[in-house]
Amino acid sequence: MQTITFKKFPLNQNLVLKSRLLAVAGDQTRIRILFFMFEYKKACVSYIAESLGMGITCISHHLQLMRDNGFFTTERTGNNICYILQENELTDSLKKIISK
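The structure assignment produced for this chain is given below.
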């Protein structure tokens, strides 16, 4: 009988990062935010909250977490904070998964 040696898969920083990003994206509210942002690319918090039928504070919390993890950047327009989708390997992959 032939002995098979399996490759080792140690936990490293790259896997920790990917795990965290998938956990951030895996929340139901954040997936809805991604659907919205895949469609519009840029929007202020109030528009996203209205579209999702949720409060601004709740949506703002989710958006900040997603921004801190590289999903979005922000820009201030008067009193409004607008979020801009970062198009990168992660968001491109999520778009393919979520949009099907």
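Interim note for the steering committee: The mean pLDDT is 93. The helical segments are 13-25, 28-40, 45-52, 56-68, 89-98.
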